[in-house]
Amino acid sequence: MPDQDDYNFPFAAQPDIIRANQKDAYFQGMLHEQFSSLVQNILGARWLHHNSRELKLFSEILYLSLTTLAGIRTLGEEYTDMLYADSKNRSRPTLKRRAAFVFSSTLLPYILVKSWPKIRERLKKTWIARSLTPREQSQPSTRLGQVRNTALRTLNAALSLENLYAVHLAVFYFSGAYYSLSKRLWNLRYIFTRKLQPHEQRAGYEVLGALLMVQLAARGYLYLSSSSESSSISTSAPSLTSDEKQLPTPTTTTSLDDPTSLAFIPPQSRTCTLCLSPMTDPTSTPCGHLFCWECIQDWVREKPECPLCRQGVRMSEAVPLRG
C-alpha cells in the first residue's frame, strides 16, 4: 500500500469493484477448500458437515486479517489496481477502522443470519401491538383481520435478508459506491491507484440497477396479488398449528449399526455418504438415495438438492424409514 496519507486518485467504477470482489471470493474459496480437506482428515466428515459454516467464517477472517487488517491490499484489489480509502477525504483508514470493517464484514453477517428470524418475529409482534387493539387482534375472521394478515405477510417479505440485499445491490449499481454493507457502514470506497486515461474510463451499471428494481417491484406485486387472493381462503379454512407446520421429525431413533434394523437395506448401502457412519434414522430423498435424518436436514438447509445426484430436494419430501 502506498505510504502517503491522502490519495488524489479517482473513485473506482462498478465493473472493477465487482471484478475485485469476485477474485477475492475465488481465493477465499480456495482457502476454505484447503482447510476443509485438512479438517476432514483430522476430525472426520461429520464434524466438517456440522461446522462448515463456521469453517468458512474462519477462512474469511484469516484472508482479510492477512491482507486488509495488516494494511495491504487483497489479491482482488491488486488485480484491479484498487485500494479503499475514506469516502470523504480519501485518506488511509486507521487500524481501528480496518479492524471494525473486518468484523462487520465477517462476524456481523454470521451473527445476523443466525439471529435475524427472531429479530423479524419481534418486529412483527411489535408492529401488531402498536397498530391493533387487543380486541382487533382477537378477530382474525373479520375484514380487518384479513388486512392484518396481508400486512404481516408483506412485512415478512420486506424484512427478508435477500430482499434487503437486493435493494442495496441496486443502489450500488446506480451510485457505484459501497458494494458491501460493511463498507457503507464505515464510509470506505475503492479508488484507483493510477490515473486513468480518457479511453480507460469505465461504464456504469445503471441499467442493471433499473432492471433489478423492476424485478423487485414485479416480485412484490405478484406477492401482494397472491396474498390477497389467498386471504379469504385462509380465513375460512382451519389454520395449521405450529406442530403441523414442523418437519416430520422421527419419534424414535433407528440406527443401522444394528444388522437386524431394517435388514432389507444391503450392507453396502447402510453407511451415510455425508458422515461416513452407519445411518441414524435413515431417510430417503425423492430420488431414492438414503442419508441420516440430521445429515440430510442440515444439507438441504444449505443446498436444497440431493448430495449425490443434485436433484432438487425439500425436507417436506424426505421420508424417514421405519421397520
UniProtKB/TrEMBL annotation:
Known EC number: 2.3.2.27
Subcellular localization, as worded in the UniProt entry? Peroxisome membrane
Q: What pathway does the UniProt record associate with this protein?
A: Protein modification; protein ubiquitination
* InterPro entries given in the database record: PEX2/10, Pex_N, Znf_RING, Znf_RING/FYVE/PHD, Znf_RING_CS
Q: Where is this region: Disordered?
A: 229-261
- Keywords of the record: Membrane, Metal-binding, Peroxisome, Peroxisome biogenesis, Protein transport, Transferase, Transmembrane, Transmembrane helix, Transport, Ubl conjugation pathway, Zinc, Zinc-finger
Q: Which residues form the RING-type domain?
A: 272-310
- Main location group: membrane
Q: What is one term from the GO cellular component aspect held by the record?
A: peroxisomal membrane
Q: Which reaction does it catalyse?
A: S-ubiquitinyl-[E2 ubiquitin-conjugating enzyme]-L-cysteine + [acceptor protein]-L-lysine = [E2 ubiquitin-conjugating enzyme]-L-cysteine + N(6)-ubiquitinyl-[acceptor protein]-L-lysine
Which Gene3D superfamilies does this entry report, sorted A to Z?
Zinc/RING finger domain, C3HC4 (zinc finger)
MF terms per GO, please? ubiquitin protein ligase activity; zinc ion binding
**What is the designated name of this protein?**
RING-type E3 ubiquitin transferase
Organism in which the protein naturally occurs: Saitoella complicata (strain BCRC 22490 / CBS 7301 / JCM 7358 / NBRC 10748 / NRRL Y-17804)
